Amino acid sequence: MPAPAAPGLYLHVPFCSAVCPYCDFAVRTGGRERRARFVARLLAEIELWAGAPPPLSAFDTVYFGGGTPSCLLPEELARILDAARARLGVVPGARVFLEANPEDVTPESLAAWRALGVATLSLGVQSFAAEDLAFLGRRHDAGEARRSVELALAAGFETVSIDLIYGLPDGLPAGSPAGWRRTLDAAVRLAPQHLSCYQLTVHDGTPFGARRDRGALRELPGEAQAGLFVLTHAFLADAGYPAYEVSNFARAHEHRSRHNRKYWEHAPYLGLGPSAHSFDGRRRWWNERTLDAWERRVAAGERPEAGGETLEREELALEALLLGLRRAEGVDLAALRERYAVDLLAANAGLLERLAADGLLARRGERLVPSPAGLAVADGLAAAFVLAPA
Ligand code: SF4
């Protein structure tokens, strides 16, 4: 089996200034003292992993996600990063990612994040249309979003990324081709290096889920969603941002997310903080989801694992196939053979011919590459394959 890629480190910051009605992440509000206590506990969790053997050492990416990591003070982020570098074997030159909300972006905060070594800043813009932002319960307006991107670009990060959401209910700008195109246009005019565009998902247990259940929120029908997906990919490709994954678009190869790639390629990763997931190549586990439960375990000197599973070869192979079909680089046939003993070609010759004839998939050497139409139906495609042992 080939050596796995270098591992990534994920740090979950569970605070937001308010919780958006569509959000199903492990997040909550919390004042300065609550955040300071969280930071102390996160430092303690880092200590619980100090000196861990490979594959969960020598991290070459560090990702502050959430939640809203930008709501921590720069000195709090610095202490976490220093501890991770000193105790977890983060390699020199590791790429640091930070998610930020537009309302936390100021020239001072940007300078502080740059000084910490943040290379990629992801801004949770979501939309440039006032009605979309109001519907999504966001705390910034379009002008603030624009200013935050401009300031971030001027601050000199290697990659500035804008997160957007589309597929909102009918009647809202991001629920119609014309309205969504206006937001995409506003985004590319700002010339960030990277864009992430997600379709709205209404999750059970969220305020949106409750509204849907009582008939007060109607999700955009699947056909309209699919139309917006195709529009997104065509618009951004024309604007110089080809998709490299179903939801991710980069102006150049070096701006593709090196951290997310670890999830897509089954590289090991260690996740710290409430709800964070980890993977060592075979086993996946996850931390206590709520801040209180996570804190109690860490305070007791325990790793705060809430559950886990060991993945069988077939399960890993199916995941690798699905993740490959969601990326423009496609499925690495040699890796499937060598890591999971699956010969995809032998067992699916007829299916591959049909998918190629339908313009969904093409074979390029040792790769199966989805077309834009194939990317749109990647999950369905994966289910059609037989995963026979090599
Ligand atoms: S800002 Fe992001 S993480 Fe926070 S509540 Fe809203 S969607 Fe969730």
Distance between the termini: 14 Å
Strand content: 15-25%
Secondary structure: number of strands:
15
Radius of gyration: 21 Å
Oligomer: single chain
Task: Describe the model.
The protein is α/β, with parallel strands linked by helices and 390 residues long. The protein has 16 helices and 15 strands. The chain has a 9-stranded mixed sheet. A hairpin with a 3-residue loop joins strand 10 and strand 11. The two termini are 14 Å apart. The structure holds iron/sulfur cluster. Iron/sulfur cluster binds next to loops.
Question: How would you summarize this macromolecular structure in one to three sentences?
Answer:
Helix content is 41%, strand content 21%.
Task: Name its key features.
390 residues; alpha/beta; nine-stranded mixed sheet; binds iron/sulfur cluster
